[in-house]
Write a structure and sequence with these properties.
The relative contact order is 0.19. The radius of gyration is 17 Å and the shape is globular. The protein is built from ten helices and six strands. It is 42% helix and 16% strand.
Length: 224
């Protein structure tokens, strides 16, 4: 993104719910996240943290619940121990659980902000990387910086997610949040690029596809 003009998208406007969607309050989302994470085997002390991460994203217009649903449903053949490892069962690196990986990000955050602004860290991307963003936001807020997560598809930047503590914004392709194959995390160079538009928490409900919600309910109801 550096060395060329970057156009930031405007804040998206909420559209009416479609016939195949259900409207969920963020409290509803919290309950589904806790129930699904429990059904997937996450420890009790982790459940409210998972809900907090998803709520952070949805309150700012980012698809945290869709990312969470995908995380819960796509890795059923792996144990949580396997999901926490950067080295995957197939011998590749990356694709680890983003919510577990966020704890490692927090531990090495000092090294991220110590790099020159715009210099990305080289670290394997977890699955559903958006779910790691709330931890980046929390760390950015403590350090008083803006963190930029660049999502790449075939080595080309497709989207940027900016966070600064309480605010967040997506600029670029929505689909890159689900289709990216690598990422980079860097301190945003405000000194030379100004401050990107960021969004406060201003949503209290979301519209979610009914069939996607049923898939998550199946997981929840599969547990005694």
């Amino acid at each position: 993104m550096f060395g060329r003009t970057t156009t930031f998208s405007e804040k998206p406007k909420r559209r009416p719910a479609l016939p195949n969607e259900v409207r969920l309050s963020l409290d509803d989302v919290d309950r589904y996240v806790v129930a699904a994470a429990r059904a997937r085997g996450y420890p009790e002390e982790f459940l409210t943290e998972a809900a907090r991460q998803v709520r952070f994203l949805e309150a700012r217009g980012l698809p945290g619940f869709a990312s969470f649903r995908r995380e819960m449903l796509e890795h059923g053949s792996e144990t949580l121990t396997q999901r926490g490892r950067v080295a995957r069962p197939d011998g590749q690196s990356g694709g680890q659980c983003p919510m577990i990986d966020a704890l490692r990000i927090a531990e090495r955050f000092e090294r991220i902000v110590a790099l020159p602004p715009g210099r990305e860290t080289d670290y394997p991307m977890p699955s559903n990387p958006l779910l790691a963003v709330p931890t980046l936001a929390e760390c950015a807020g403590r350090h008083g910086v803006i963190i930029m997560t660049t999502l790449y598809i075939r080595e080309r930047p497709a989207a940027y997610v900016f966070v600064d503590g309480d605010r967040a914004a997506l600029h670029g392709s929505y689909y890159a949040l689900f289709e990216a194959d690598s990422w980079g995390i860097a301190r945003f160079p405000e000194e030379t690029h100004g401050t990107p538009p960021l969004r406060e928490a201003d949503l209290e409900a979301i519209d979610f596809p009914a069939d996607a919600l049923r898939d998550l309910m199946t997981l929840i109801e599969s547990q005694p």
